[in-house]
Each structure stands twice: as structure tokens, then as C-alpha cells.
## 1
Amino acid sequence: MKDKTLASVVKDAREKLGISQRELSRRTGIDNNTLAKIEKGERKKPNVLSLRKLALILDLSLDELMKLANYDESEFNIISNKIINKENIDTSTMAGELINKFIDAFKYDVCARKIMVEFIKKKEFKNYEEYKNLTPAEKKKVDEVFEGYIESFMEDIDGLESNIENVNDIG
């Protein structure tokens, strides 16, 4: 039997959910390259915030992920006391600040994606010289790409807003 590693646990949990690394990246906000390195075992000790995101989305124990990432006892105790026991979270602590930054990052990402959706829906891109110089067939292809962006952004917005709710539930 293969020993459990952070890489194998994350990869197995992701595959069990039936999602790609890209989808996990979208849901967690963790860079796809970082996720690939975690799953390959090249990133042995990701930051705790990344582990927390993975734990939430993959329905894993943060304790287990921290142990697999070789966090020492003092680091483990600090995080356990301040993040897992939500009644003990003090927003003036580092853990509270990290959670607030995490929430803000999702909010800004959602805002940016909503703006892009409006930009595309209003067909603002058609005002650019590069678009105007396309043939009708090329314009049709570009329009289709932008429609795909809208669908993708709307899915991303839903996922990110869900992540914001999950993080708010922690604190």
C-alpha cells in the first residue's frame, strides 16, 4: 500500500470529486501551476491558507493536510486554535488577517469578472480597430469566443461567491 503524502491525498480527493486541476484552481483561487506542483510532490509545504482552501473544497481535514505538509507542532497548534475553532478567531491575529485577505481577494475577483461580463455583453470589444479589421467570418468566431468567456466568467462568479460564503462561515 502506498504511503499517504500530501500530493497523493490532494490528487485522490480531486479525482474522487471528478474535477480537473484547472477546476480545482478555479474553485480555490490557487494558481494552477501551484496545484500541479502540490500534486506532483514538488511543493511539500504549501501555506496554510492554501491548505485551508483545499480542505474546504475537497472536503478534507485541515489537520491531516497540515500533518502531511510537515507543519511542526507549534504551527499546528496556532492554526488549529485560531482557524478551526471559529469562536476563537480574533480578527486582529494573523489568522484573522489572512482570512480577511482571502475574502477580499475573492470579492475583487468576482467584481473584475462581473465587469468583464458587462464589457462583453455591451460588445465594447467591437469598438477596437483590431476587431473592425476582421472579416465577417473572423468576427463571428471572435464573438463566439467572447460568448464562451461570458459562460466561463458566470460559472467562475458562482464558484467564487460560494467560496466567499464558505470562508465567511469560518469566521
## 2
Amino acid sequence: MPVFEYECDACIDEYNSDISSLVEKINKSNASKIMKKNPKFYYIEVYDDKKDRLAFALGEKGKRNVRKFRYKVKNNKSLYLELKNFRFSELIYNKEEEKNLVCPSCSKGDKVRRVYSTFKAIFDDKNKRAPHPGDELQYHLDYKKMKDEEMASSWVGYDHLNQYFND
């Protein structure tokens, strides 16, 4: 079953504009205004690296389905954000179904694009992949033997030989 991941460009643009306005004027009152305006900001934390202490924190930390970002900003401060996830996955069977996608965060479908997926389902035969921890020992040994035979039988080409001769 083909599972694809998508990102909402409208959500990303909204986040970027709010983060830019927060960085321009990084204080607690501006951060609270941004959190009220955009409820997709779950947590904002500003840490003062020079004084080695927390300047302020707003919101609830550790919610589910969040994207976490950490930025170094001016005046030796670090900005830590937890935002509502703008990436979502959908099960698509036909190309026509992809046109009807809607972002679950903002309910817009006009700026949704497919991105490279960070997960991949492996449905191949075990013999076509490298062994992983947890596989039986014999599979590790057989795989090493197979790779050694491949390397021994490979033809030595000119590119390999040229490295030993000085021109």
C-alpha cells in the first residue's frame, strides 16, 4: 500500500512569518501575542546563553504530533519552538486522489505538496537486504560470505589499477 507524506506550504508560510516577527522583537509580550494569534504554536522558550538561564517560556511542552525547532538568535539567545506538525501522511491508491488532499491542520488543499518520506515499508525478501540486529547468526554469516564472493569475483578495471601508477 503506498503511503505518502505531504507538507502544507500555507502552514509553513504562516509559521515562517510568525517566527520572523518573534525574532525581530523577542520578548514575552510579543511571544504571547503570537501564541494567541496562531494557536498552532504549542510552546515557546527563550534561553539566555550569556546568563545561562531561562528568559521565559510560554505554552505547554511535550504535546503529541509536534515539530521541534531550535534557533540561535541575536543577543546570545536560543529560541526553542514546538509547533503543530505541518507534515501529514495519506494512503493514496490513484493519482486522482492526490488532487483532493486537504491539510488536517489548516483545512486548505491548494498548497499541499508531496515530500520525501522519512519512513519506508520493507516488503522485500530478507535475502535482498543487509542483516540487521536481531537477525539470526547464520544469516549474518551467509551474507558476509556472499559479499566476500562478490568482491573476489569482481573485475579489476583501469580506474582501480591507475591509482598504483604515477603519471
